[in-house]
């Protein structure tokens, strides 16, 4: 049944018991993103030391998909370098654009870990933006907190 | 000819399933889209007429008739088709005017309610710089005030915020009570000698509330202010007569009343329209054009620049005919019966809270609710999976959800093809959502 494809148990677990929730100090950048069509919102802070994303903290309100997405993102990106975290974000965008194509999910499983469970969301165009909101906030906050200097020139910050 | 329907006249709200005033099966047979299925063969339970209504065959046929037999630009040219198109267009205007008890020349066609509201807001700032002295009467500037309410759709809020930003005028508003009704306790201070225009919805698109318009209109006119009524959610669902209403403007959208998209109406009192400068300018709204400057046609042509949405206007007239044949009093009674039943059934589910008036007193068939432990989007998704179309989110009334202390709501809206079976599907769908998300054991009042 399609509905269960979207509401994977792992997503509902993240929704009910979010990981890393709450705004923490210190931080290097804070952003507030909203989804104007539905009113979902997230406030997200990043702490960067060197190139490493040492903390991502957040508060938000919204549907299960948007709130589970930020929790799964927290697990995935904290401890990674900023370029690695952004690359993971690009993989997540690809997953959201897959329109339910399971081969994309298979390919991205190593990169996205738990977050690959969001593959079912890509079949519901109206919900894709819910899943992407926190990743867009992360990209925005990272760009404010960190500049690709010296060694880390990984291309254009899109 | 009731304007603000007296809901308290009904003997009691909670008598369960009295026979519905409309023959639902006969009405449904007129709506081709209700034959289709969604989400793996499920019957379409369309409870989103408040966003846009479905169209009966009669409306679709009228548009097709126009394109297949008459199509030409009205009010231009002298050939046979042009004459017939002009005749059909103006006949449609007469039908639509008659539907709201208005004179034809007081009905201006716009794209929708949003554009109709913008037309007035822009005309009031254009009045500031108009070269014609007769267009200065409703000019707005510093020291003037515009009054809205906290329950308006964004379409009846943002144009006024923008008008105030353009002109230096001040925006004021009437607030809401905790149960989602309009708070009139400070009406006499909010609406005062500085007020230029008061604008208020006749039925909230999110709460269903039908505010008492008479005291607002009386106060506004006592201080010399204009009054606009947003009828987007009322004109489709209840009899509205502009003479009885007593406002200066009424706006509504064709697509919410069984008509096509792309056509809406600004009704304005003749002497008010006459004193307003144009909003959009161009062809067919002019009197004399010279390179140095131009003069403008009288209303309604002054406000209808360019070739109009002729087929849509004809479709909207067919929608008015359709509703008139059903009888707007009957439509109102039908929706009132459904609303009473749905309120009773939804509020009987533990964990469900209706956002807005809890009974049918002065409220229409837009029912917003929240389900304890499930976000409105997720409620909507589970309903959709069962073929039930509802709206979720802030419903273009963000200040309302903020005021009511919820992040968003799930909203069901009813219309002429809605039956008790649709309400039952909704209620069962909500229970299913509770089971799906494991919150069906939520205690009442948690």
Set down the secondary structure blueprint.
The complex is a heterodimer of chains A (158) and B (446).
Chain A: H1 2-6, H2 9-16, E1 29-35, E2 40-49, E3 52-61, H3 64-77, H4 82-96, H5 102-112, H6 125-145
Antiparallel strand pairs in A: 1-2, 2-3
Helix pairs in contact in A: 2-3, 3-6, 4-5, 4-6
Chain B: H1 24-28, E1 37-38, E2 42-43, E3 45-46, H2 57-69, H3 80-99, E4 107-110, H4 113-129, E5 145-149, H5 158-167, E6 170-174, H6 187-190, E7 195-201, H7 213-222, E8 226-230, H8 242-245, E9 249-253, E10 264-268, H9 270-274, E11 286-290, E12 293-296, H10 310-326, H11 328-347, E13 352-355, E14 366-371, H12 376-385, E15 388-389, E16 391-393, H13 398-404, E17 409-413, H14 420-436
Helix pairs in contact in B: 2-10, 3-10, 4-5, 11-14, 12-14
What does this structure look like?
The complex is a heterodimer of chains A (158) and B (446). Helices cover 47% and strands 17% of the residues of chain A. In chain A, a hairpin with a 4-residue loop joins β1 (29-35) and β2. Chain A is globular and about 40 Å long. Chain A has 158 residues and is an alpha+beta fold. In chain A, α2 (9-16) crosses α3 and α4 runs antiparallel to α6. The termini of chain A are far apart. Chain A has one domain (2-145): Alpha-Beta Complex (Sufe protein. Chain: A), CATH 3.90.1010. The mean pLDDT of chain A is 91. Chain B folds into two domains: 7-56 and 327-436, Aspartate Aminotransferase, domain 1 (Alpha-Beta Complex), CATH 3.90.1150.10; 59-324, Aspartate Aminotransferase, domain 2 (3-Layer(aba) Sandwich). In chain B, 53% of the residues are buried. Chain B has helices spanning 24-28, 57-69, 80-99, 113-129, 158-167, 187-190, 213-222, 242-245, 270-274, 310-326, 328-347, 376-385, 398-404, 420-436, and strands at 37-38, 42-43, 45-46, 107-110, 145-149, 170-174, 195-201, 226-230, 249-253, 264-268, 286-290, 293-296, 352-355, 366-371, 388-389, 391-393, 409-413. Chain B has 446 residues and is of the alpha/beta class. Chain B is globular and about 75 Å long. In chain B, α3 packs parallel to α10 (310-326) and α4 runs parallel beside α5 (158-167). Chain B contains 14 helices and 17 strands. In chain B, a hairpin with a 3-residue loop joins β1 and β2 (42-43). Mean pLDDT of chain B is 94; it is low at 1-14. Chain B has a seven-stranded mixed β-sheet. The longest helix of chain B is centred in the first third of the chain and has 20 residues, at 80-99. The interface between A and B is medium-sized, with 19 and 18 residues.
């Amino acid at each position: 049944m399609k509905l269960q494809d979207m509401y994977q148990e792992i997503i509902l677990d993240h929704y009910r018991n979010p990981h890393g929730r709450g705004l923490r100090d210190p931080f290097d950048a804070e952003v507030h993103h909203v989804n104007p069509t539905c009113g979902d919102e997230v406030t997200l802070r990043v702490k960067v030391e060197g190139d490493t994303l040492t903390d991502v903290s957040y508060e938000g309100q919204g549907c299960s998909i948007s709130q589970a997405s930020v929790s799964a993102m927290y697990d995935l990106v904290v401890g990674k370098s900023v370029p690695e975290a952004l690359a993971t974000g690009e993989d997540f965008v690809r997953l959201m654009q897959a329109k339910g194509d399971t081969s994309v999910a298979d390919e991205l499983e190593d990169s996205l870990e738990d977050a690959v469970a969001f593959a079912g969301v890509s079949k519901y165009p109206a919900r894709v933006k819910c899943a992407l909101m926190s990743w867009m906030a992360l990209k925005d906050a990272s760009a404010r907190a960190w500049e690709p200097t010296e060694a880390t020139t990984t291309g254009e910050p899109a | 000819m009731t304007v603000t329907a007296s809901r308290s006249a009904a003997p009691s709200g909670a008598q369960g399933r009295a026979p519905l005033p409309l023959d639902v099966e006969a009405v449904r047979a007129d709506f081709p889209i209700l034959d289709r299925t969604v989400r793996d063969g499920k019957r379409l339970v369309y409870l989103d007429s408040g966003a846009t209504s479905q169209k009966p065959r009669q409306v679709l046929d009228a548009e097709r008739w126009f394109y297949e037999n008459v199509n030409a630009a009205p009010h231009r040219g002298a050939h046979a088709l042009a004459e017939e198109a002009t005749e059909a267009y103006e006949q449609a205007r007469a039908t639509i005017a008659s539907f709201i008890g208005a004179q034809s020349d007081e009905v201006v066609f716009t794209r929708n309610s949003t554009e109709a509201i913008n037309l007035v807001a822009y005309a009031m700032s254009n009045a500031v710089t108009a070269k014609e002295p007769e267009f200065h009467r409703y000019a707005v500037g510093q020291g003037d005030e515009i009054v809205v309410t906290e329950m308006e759709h964004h379409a009846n809020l943002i144009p006024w915020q923008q008008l105030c930003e353009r002109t230096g005028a001040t925006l004021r508003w009437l607030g809401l009570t905790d149960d989602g009704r309009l708070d009139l306790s400070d009406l006499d201070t909010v609406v005062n000698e500085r007020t230029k225009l008061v604008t208020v919805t006749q039925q909230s698109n999110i709460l269903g509330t039908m505010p008492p318009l008479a005291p607002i209109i009386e106060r506004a006119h006592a201080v010399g202010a204009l009054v606009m009524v947003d009828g987007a959610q009322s004109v489709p669902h209840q009899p509205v007569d502009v003479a009885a209403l007593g406002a200066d403007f009424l706006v509504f959208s064709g697509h919410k009343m069984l008509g096509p998209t792309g056509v809406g109406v600004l009704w304005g009192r003749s002497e008010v329209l006459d004193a307003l400068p144009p909003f959009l300018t161009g062809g067919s709204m002019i009197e004399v054009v010279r390179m140095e400057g131009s003069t403008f046609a009288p209303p309604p042509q002054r406000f209808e620049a360019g070739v109009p949405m002729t087929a849509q206007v004809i479709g909207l007239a067919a929608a008015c005919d359709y509703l008139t044949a059903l009888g707007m009093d009957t439509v109102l009674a039908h929706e009132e019966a459904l609303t009473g039943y749905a309120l009773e059934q939804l509020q009987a589910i533990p964990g469900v809270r209706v956002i807005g008036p809890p009974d049918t007193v002065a409220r229409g068939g837009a029912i917003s609710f929240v389900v304890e432990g499930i976000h409105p989007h997720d409620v909507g998704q589970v309903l959709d999976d069962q073929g039930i179309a509802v709206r979720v989110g802030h419903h273009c009334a963000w200040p309302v959800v903020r005021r009511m202390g919820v992040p968003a709501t799930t909203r069901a809206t009813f219309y002429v093809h809605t039956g008790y079976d649709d309400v039952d599907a909704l209620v069962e769908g909500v229970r299913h959502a509770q089971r799906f998300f494991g919150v069906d054991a939520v205690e009442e009042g948690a």
